[in-house]
Amino acid sequence: MAISCVTVALLSVLAQRGFFDSAYGTDISSGDQYEDDNFMETNQLSDRSAMTRLFAEAIKAPLLSSDSQVQTATLNLTYLYLSRDDGSGKEVHVLVEENIADYVFEILRLSGCKDTLVNTCLQVLDLLSSADQVFKPRLAIGFSTLLPVLHYVADVPFHPVQPQTIKLILKCVSNCPGILSNSHVEEISLVLAGMLKKHIDGDTGMLPETFTLACSLLVALLKSPSCHEASTFALTLQDASRHAILNCLSIYGRHPSQFLHSLYLLKEAYAYGCERNTNTSYMELRNCILEVCKTHLLPWFLTAISDMEEDMVLGVLESFHAILLQDIDTKPKDFAYILLSSSWFSFSFGCLGLFPAERMKWRVHLMSSSLVDVLLGNDSGQPIRDAASHLPSDPIEMLYILGVKSSHNLDSLSCQSAILLILYTSSLYDDRLADDKLVLASLEQYILLNNIELLYGAAKSETIEILVNVYGLYRSLAKMSYQIPYSPEAERILFHLASEKDWDLLSSRIHFKSLKWLFQQEKMCKLLSTQILKLCRCSTSVANHILLHGKNSQSLDVLTLAELVASEDNFGATLLVYLLRELVEEGGQEDDIISTLNLIAEIIDTCPGASDQLCLHGIGIAIENLYYYSRNASFPNTYMNMLKLIFRIFSSVRSKSISEDESWLAVTMKLMDYLIATATADGWNHEGLMIIGILCLILHHSTNQALLGVSKSILLCSALVQIITKTIREACSKGPALTDHDEGTNVGASLIFLLLLNYFSFKSMHAVVPGNFYLLDLLDTNNVKEIYFISIPCHDLCRLIYFGSPPVKLVASYCLLELLTRISEEERTEPEKFNCNSCYLKSLIAVLEGMLHYSDIRVAMNCSLCLSIILGWQKQDISAQVFGRNNWCRFIIEELVMSLAVPCLASKTLPIHHKPAVHVAVALLKLQNIPQWMSSVFDDSSILGIVKNLSASNLSPEMVLLFRVLLTSGYLKADQVAVLNRLFQECRKRIYSQNSQDSKEEHTEKLNIASEGLGNVCEFLINLMSSQSPAGIRSQEVQVRNKDLLEEIELFSKDIMEEDVA
Fold it and tell me: pTM of the predicted model, to two decimals?
């Protein structure tokens, strides 16, 4: 039976005026008069169902009408019929059975997303969905119809049927999970994530009910079977969960009810991300949620706690707790460390103060136990879980319980173990639960009252470790405040407990202040020495594994021990020296001695300053004892490790920290005896070259007035001098073939090390025995005197520079420069003894001139400085004897001027490669008789060209030096000086600007001596040698170069003033 449009309108008006309510109400009233008569009541309900079926038949035709207005009116009538006050579930059931839901779904499918039809259809379907069982198959069929509608309503902010649409899809996903395909999951989640993203400011996009349903639908999707096959779902869920939390945080004061739903989504999304921990998208989902918690949720929670309701606080705690329980990678551990670094224990007890309910107490203590599990591992938080029901909510009450005698009371014992664990864990992160004085007093009371139980009872070793670590921290704090008293008896008992109960420092985390306090206690030295030996025996991977937990807490490892040893206020260095001496004197195992030597070496590598304290506390005596009194010293492994340690000590220790006792002299004599014996018998082996490196460092320290006696014994060791002389002569005899012997060959390596020893010998001579070495003998080829000190003649050095491999050329050039420098000093002090053959000088100069354009700028600079020194020997009249017919120097200077004056060449040569030639030019300009051709080379046009090519950015100290000498030699005119002054002023401003912007950083060079090869040792010695050289070839660091440049500019200004005065 069909009804017309007018009839539909009439029925709608009647429904709005309550006609259906009154009609059914009369029936119900009459039924109430006979409510005891079940038969009559059944008939009335049957009549009502019949009426509903009649209504359903009547509206089917209008619902199928092609007129959208009729459809809309009929849908409105249906909505009014179902939503009246006396409507019953039976009527909805009947309408669904009569296929009205199918009709509505069909209208919705064909509606083209017209707003009026969409609104009325969704409202009717929402009411029909209350008939769960009969509606379920209809909803499954109409599910595909809802997806386009979801897209439509999601794009319209505050669309009135957003909640109904999401609610219907949620019911379908929950009741019919098998209907979802991968594409459905991706499609729905993308739409919902888009809605949440639009809602990011909390004011636009959706109603609170819509937000709640969106979160619920996302949770339902991630629990569906198809979610894991949806490739983009994890990424979409990542955005959705982040936006949901950020939404709620921004509007918490207006809509706090939404917060729990966003937390639920966050927690379930994290659990979903943990299901496939190796998948990249799942890892990104977990990381995103952790980042949201760390960056947004946790900071907000810590500040908003006082304005939150208990359920909300519990929700946040539960979410955090769920993350901690997922032990799949290091990220949850990082989150745990962030919580602990935020004074989480203090905050947790603050929560208990605001919300003292039992469920809050349980949640706080359970989460605390999980934090301990994450931090310490192996279910370490179990004591807190066991005592959770007995633990008080007030930290002061906890300290009271800690300070009472347990008397075999299991509850008290359980609580005290949990309280110690809480105090210990919180202390690692500087989280103070109570006043330091109260905590220390409670700890001491606990030790004094329960010492028998702790010593002879069932106390675990972990309890003793925790007690020692916590007690050490609060004693350290008491020491700093000078106002907190302590109990010497409690301290004595604690130390006794630590020694009797196998206290293991390596396996526990400890606050650095606590660790340092323990290393300051002399009574603990024996026990700590045992712990250090354990560390020595650890494998390298374990020993080097640094476990940081907060800025002040860590385990005892190489880094921590190195910091303690380098400090002056504890027994760290003393303990290491004592341990090594004890192992040597008591005949310890070779493995223990080697591991102790390696640990000390690693400590010096980690913290070079530790070598100062080790030397001050007698490491030299321990090494001497190892050489003289231990049979292990002769073992190859022990011997090599000992050499490496000695090298590390001398390479990092400050000279003033080296004592002048006989131990280092004895060690050095043993080293040289071994060196001479092996070199004579078998040549230069690995150990021998390492000893050469050690001797170099000893000589280096003598220049700072340390180890003078030891250095003298090295310099004057005749057997060593003979071996070195023989080796150098053999190398020089190879001629051009010497080029093939680089540092990779035995000949090349030994040659480099012997040259290094020669260099440091030259540096040491004037400090060890000033005036007793006559180096002019090394310049005279006709001298038949036997050399009695470590040295290499000048002509041999020239051969090595000319024929040697690049590393040999480098070290030999440094040696020659140092030798000529010392000879120049002798020439100034004793000019009457200075006499040198001009032919010999010509050959020397020829070699040096040929190296001015060598590719290694350091070699070229050394040779140019050597040439400059020779030019300065005025007594020999070098300009007349040597340069009278030599055009090579003129060629060098002319090429220099051309390269500096021509723009296209200057841009390539200004920075570095002009430096050697500049020093030669300066030396020539300083001669009493300047070569006449110099004035034609440095004419006005050339000087003008050079000045034009200079700028504040490419100016070097060498160029300022050249202009300074040109000025004093009369080659510069007034206008050129004015231009240079302006240029130097700009350069000053530039340097000062750089200095104000750049932060000064200190770089500590660490030496890493590989187990095989001597490359690192050689490189270290060469760097040390280079650092002592003249400014022109020192480090090219900007700060050094700028300092030298400013000094040269200042000297130029002074010379101008002197010229003006003159």
Answer: 0.80
